[in-house]
């Protein structure tokens, strides 16, 4: 009885012919901010005929048939909502079948599932839930830590931060003004090389002098 | 005396029959929750309204009005509407409505009831009013405090590395200059010896 009244009421406006649906949906993205997943779908129905009115719609979502919310100001917009825990609303595409008043009444009278499936829906829309994120898998702190540990390791392997063992205060070591051990090692090596050269030269000079003096002595004897 | 008792009898009978003619009561309960763990400024605030028809009769022309709880100067409405209406809710069934808002300010915020009106049956025009549960007082966390705890800090680390580069690069450059200088000397000596 009530449904007949509803149908008559709807018939007072024209029937909607070949409706087109545009969907604007939003689903929860951040699982750290929101404890449950929620989806809000806004469907705008446009009829081919200008005077066509759709009236209340019913949606079949996840097996549940629920009435669609309507806006008081804009009668073409319908709202469907879905909420559940993150596991109950997994990532994926969700299909919503829409039924207008007539098809809904037929659906309600259907006795079994087969009859229910054969009822012609007013339309079908779908929306995609891209899943909730619980934050990045590898945090940025990890990369920063790896980078700086790498820098430390590089400077440990190449003796960069081993301070020189300079203890004397004499002017030679002060004059050297060393920066690090390699500098010290390099300078000592160079110093040894140069001093060695110097010593070699001195020895040669001595031998030369000795030979000169022995020559002189020989000449004196002769 | 007899007239008075008769009058009294008639009155009681009409009262009782009035109650009997009233069909099954319909009870519509509305709860209003926020699904957020933290309510953060300039981030999504999800409000879920659940309407339960606990009675045995269908309710009609349900209208939910929650515009007053979320004034436009403090909240931006992103998805959903704050005043939906539904044609009917069947007996012993429920309905969910989700609204996503964005708070513009931080600080304490009191979220009160939503008002729901409905008609108990198709025939009456009499409108019943019920109130949803309230969320109560919540603190809206500022964006800065939330980011400090939860953002990925990627940009912060890049800035830190850029600031640390002079402290590392300057001693490295000194070492590198010294090393190349002595490496060339040693190489020259080796070449000479050979």
Topology:
The complex is a heterodimer of chains A (222) and B (194).
Chain A: H1 2-11, E1 20-27, E2 37-46, E3 58-61, E4 64-67, E5 69-71, E6 77-84, E7 92-99, H2 101-109, H3 113-118, E8 123-129, H4 140-157, H5 171-176, H6 181-221
Antiparallel strand pairs in A: 1-2, 2-6, 3-4, 3-7, 5-6, 7-8
Chain B: H1 2-21, E1 28-34, E2 39-40, E3 45-53, E4 59-65, E5 75-79, E6 84-89, E7 93-103, E8 107-111, E9 115-119, E10 127-131, E11 136-141, H2 143-150, H3 154-193
Parallel strand pairs in B: 2-11
Antiparallel strand pairs in B: 1-3, 3-7, 4-6, 4-9, 5-7, 8-11, 9-10
Identify the notable features of this structure and list them briefly.
heterodimer; A: 222 residues; alpha+beta; Immunoglobulin-like; 4-stranded antiparallel sheet; B: 4-stranded antiparallel sheet; 11 strands
Q: If you had to describe this structure to a student in words, what would you say it looks like?
A:
The complex is a heterodimer of chains A (about 220) and B (about 190). Chain A has helices at about 1-10, 100-110, 115-120, 140-155, 170-175, 180-220; strands at about 20-25, 35-45, 60, 65, 70, 75-85, 90-100, 125-130. By secondary structure, chain A is α+β, with helices and mostly antiparallel strands. Chain A folds into two domains: about 10-130, Immunoglobulin-like; about 140-220. Chain A starts with a helix and ends with a helix. By secondary structure, chain B is an alpha+beta fold. Chain B has three helices and eleven strands, in the order H-E-E-E-E-E-E-E-E-E-E-E-H-H. Chain B has helices spanning about 1-20, 145-150, 155-194, and strands spanning about 30-35, 40, 45-55, 60-65, 75-80, 85-90, 95-105, 105-110, 115-120, 125-130, 135-140. Chain B has a four-stranded antiparallel β-sheet, with no helix packed on it. A four-stranded antiparallel β-sheet of chain B has the order 6-4-9-10, with no helix packed on it. The relative contact order of chain B is 0.15. Chains A and B meet through helix 1, strand 1, strand 2, strand 5 and strand 6 of A and strand 6, strand 7 and helix 3 of B. Strand 5 of chain A pairs antiparallel with strand 6 (about 85-90) of chain B. Chain B: It comes from Didymodactylos carnosus. Chain B: InterPro entries: TRAP_beta. Chain B: Heterotetramer of TRAP-alpha, TRAP-beta, TRAP-delta and TRAP-gamma. Chain B: Its main location: endoplasmic reticulum.
């Amino acid at each position: 009885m009530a449904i007949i009244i509803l149908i008559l009421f709807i018939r007072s406006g024209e029937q909607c012919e070949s409706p087109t649906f545009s969907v604007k949906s939003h689903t929860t993205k951040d699982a750290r901010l929101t404890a449950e997943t929620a989806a809000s779908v806004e469907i705008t129905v446009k009829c081919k005929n200008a005077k066509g009115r759709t009236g209340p719609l019913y949606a079949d979502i996840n097996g549940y048939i629920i009435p669609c919310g309507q806006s008081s100001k804009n009668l073409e917009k319908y709202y469907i909502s879905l909420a559940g825990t993150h596991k109950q609303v997994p990532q994926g595409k969700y299909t919503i079948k829409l039924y207008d008043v007539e098809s809904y009444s037929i659906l309600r009278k259907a006795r079994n599932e087969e009859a229910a499936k054969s009822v012609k829906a007013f339309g079908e829309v779908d929306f995609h839930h891209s899943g909730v994120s619980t934050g990045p898998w590898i945090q940025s702190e990890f990369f920063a830590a790896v980078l700086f540990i790498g820098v430390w390791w590089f400077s440990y392997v190449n003796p960069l931060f081993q301070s020189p063992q300079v203890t004397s205060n004499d002017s030679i070591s002060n004059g050297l003004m060393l920066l690090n051990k390699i500098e010290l090692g390099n300078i000592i090596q160079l110093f040894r090389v140069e001093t060695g050269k110097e010593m070699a030269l001195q020895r040669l000079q001595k031998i030369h002098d000795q030979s000169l003096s022995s020559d002189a002595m020989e000449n004196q004897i002769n | 005396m007899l007239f008075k008792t008769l009058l009294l009898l008639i009155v009681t009978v009409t009262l009782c029959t009035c109650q009997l003619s009233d069909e099954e009561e319909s009870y519509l309960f509305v709860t209003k929750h926020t699904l957020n763990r933290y309510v953060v400024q300039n981030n999504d605030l999800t409000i879920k309204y659940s309407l339960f028809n606990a009675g045995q009769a269908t309710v009609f022309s349900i209208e939910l009005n929650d515009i007053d709880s979320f004034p436009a100067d403090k909240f931006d409405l992103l998805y959903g509407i704050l005043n939906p209406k539904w044609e009917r809710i069947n007996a012993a069934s429920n309905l969910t409505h989700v609204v996503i808002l964005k708070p513009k300010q931080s600080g304490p915020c009191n979220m009160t009831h939503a008002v729901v009106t409905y008609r108990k049956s198709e025939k009456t025009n009499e409108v019943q009013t019920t109130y949803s549960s309230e969320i109560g007082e919540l603190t809206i966390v500022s964006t800065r405090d939330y980011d400090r705890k939860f953002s990925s800090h990627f940009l912060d680390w890049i800035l830190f590395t850029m600031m640390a580069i002079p402290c590392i690069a300057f001693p490295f450059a000194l070492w590198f200059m010294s090393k190349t200088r002595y490496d060339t000397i040693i190489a020259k000596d080796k070449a000479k010896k050979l």
